[in-house]
């Protein structure tokens, strides 16, 4: 705990057998109270590895439901455990769990309600092996998103995020997509709700074992990201209203 805040790390897992142990062992258990792993019907031995590591809260999906659906299950369980701070960390060891201290202290001390681990701040992405084409796509999408959403993030696509409980209780993330665009929808909801977002530099490790999406899915993701940003702009100007920006009580 920090300042009597219960901290939970959630691991949305899919085929993470080879990297899960490294990720788990770097989680700072001097402040982390719970770890939740949700397995989205992996094709490898992710579940068995999680059990071997002694992860207490393991939730298997009986069918592959998608990355967004995985996070929904993660957050539901984290809130049931009365977590005050929820850290979402990809278990593919692309992001350093050693930053959890820094991210959680910002929230626990009331400085920010949301903290992102950014691969783009500094030179962490390219130095860590991010393919140049992915780096370029990240930068272009982020530039357009910042214009449409009137923000100044260095990236919208990180898989390393920390939220205060009040954020997840306020935004209507349950209506978001089941796939990868979920991450962008939740950020749009956070900005729409008026929460401030901090970013810290995150060293990155790209390897063959790291999770990735194929080219066609990347194109769909990019288009989905632009739709989310445009929807945010239309919502803020009052031209249209979208379900993802509605209050939970309205559904």
Observed structural traits:
single chain, 251 residues, alpha/beta, Spore Coat Polysaccharide Biosynthesis Protein SpsA, Chain A, 7-stranded mixed β-sheet, 7 strands
Describe this structure in words.
With 251 residues, the protein is an alpha/beta fold. The protein has one domain: Spore Coat Polysaccharide Biosynthesis Protein SpsA, Chain A (Alpha-Beta Complex), CATH 3.90.550. It is built from 9 helices and 7 strands, in the order βαβαβαβαβααβααβα. It has a 7-stranded mixed β-sheet, sandwiched between helices. It starts with 6 loop residues before the first strand and ends in a 14-residue tail after the last helix.
Contiguous runs where pLDDT drops below 50 for at least 5 residues: none
| CATH topology group | Spore Coat Polysaccharide Biosynthesis Protein SpsA, Chain A
What is the spatial order of strands in the main beta sheet?
3-2-1-4-6-5-7
SS elements, strand count: 7
Please give the CATH architecture: Alpha-Beta Complex
- What's the CATH superfamily, by name? Spore Coat Polysaccharide Biosynthesis Protein SpsA, Chain A
Pairing-aware structural class of the strands and helices? Answer: alpha/beta
Dominant shape: globular
User: Which H/E pattern describes the elements?
Assistant: EHEHEHEHEHHEHHEH
Proportion of β residues? 5-15%
Domain module count: 1
- Percent helix range: 40-55%
> What is the makeup of the main sheet?
7 strands, mixed
CATH class reads Alpha Beta
| Spatial extent as radius of gyration | 17 Å
Q: If helices are DSSP runs of H or I spanning 4 or more residues, what is the number of helices?
A: 9
Chain-averaged pLDDT: 93
- Please give the alpha-carbon distance between the first and last residues: 34 Å
């Amino acid at each position: 705990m920090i300042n009597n805040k219960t901290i939970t790390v959630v691991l949305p897992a899919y085929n993470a057998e080879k990297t899960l142990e490294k990720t788990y062992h770097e989680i700072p258990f001097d402040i982390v109270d719970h770890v939740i792993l949700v397995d989205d019907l992996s094709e490898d031995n992710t579940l068995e590895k999680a059990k071997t590591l002694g992860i207490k809260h393991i939730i298997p999906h009986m069918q592959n439901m998608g990355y967004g659906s995985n996070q929904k299950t993660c957050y539901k369980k984290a809130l049931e455990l009365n977590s005050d701070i929820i850290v979402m960390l990809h278990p593919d060891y692309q992001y350093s769990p050693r930053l959890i201290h820094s991210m959680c202290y910002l929230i626990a001390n009331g400085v920010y309600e949301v903290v992102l681990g950014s691969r783009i701040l500094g030179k962490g992405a390219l130095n860590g092996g991010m393919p140049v084409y992915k780096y370029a796509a990240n930068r272009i999408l982020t530039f357009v998103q910042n214009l449409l959403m009137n923000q100044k993030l260095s990236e919208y696509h990180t898989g390393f995020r920390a939220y205060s409980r009040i954020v997840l209780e306020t935004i209507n993330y349950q209506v978001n997509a089941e796939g990868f665009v979920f991450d962008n929808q939740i950020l749009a909801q956070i900005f729409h709700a008026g929460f401030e977002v901090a970013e810290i530099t995150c060293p990155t490790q790209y390897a063959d074992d790291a999770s990735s999406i194929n080219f066609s899915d990347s194109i769909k993701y990019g288009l989905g990201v632009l739709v989310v940003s445009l929807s945010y702009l239309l919502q803020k100007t009052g031209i249209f209203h979208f379900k993802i920006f509605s209050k939970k009580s309205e559904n």
